[in-house]
Amino acid sequence: MSEGSTASGPSVFGSQGNRLRLEDCPNCGCRLICIRSKQPETFNQMFFKCPNNVRGDPNTCEWIRSERQYETYLCVLDARKQQCGDLQVIGDARMQALCELKD
Ligand SMILES: [Zn+2]
């Protein structure tokens, strides 16, 4: 893949108006898709998932993240690509989330 340019790849706007770029599934390499939940308990929340993920079918790719998890995932990706200075701005809570996500 191309190295961390800020190119205007495919992206969506999160609930806070923040821009979230669509990465590739780490399992399949397919471009992730953004969906809105129709389940009552998470109604209208955004989720990011692999297009190969079929709900209720364990044989399909299991990769799915809530909006917040996905935001963190993007930060982790950035941090891996380069020492991302933005992480300092994001604050302690987010850093903690990063640590939890790492293993
Ligand atoms: Zn996948």
UniProtKB/TrEMBL annotation:
Residues 1-20 are annotated as: Disordered. It comes from the Eukaryota. Residues 1-18 have a biased composition (Polar residues). This is Zinc finger GRF-type domain-containing protein.
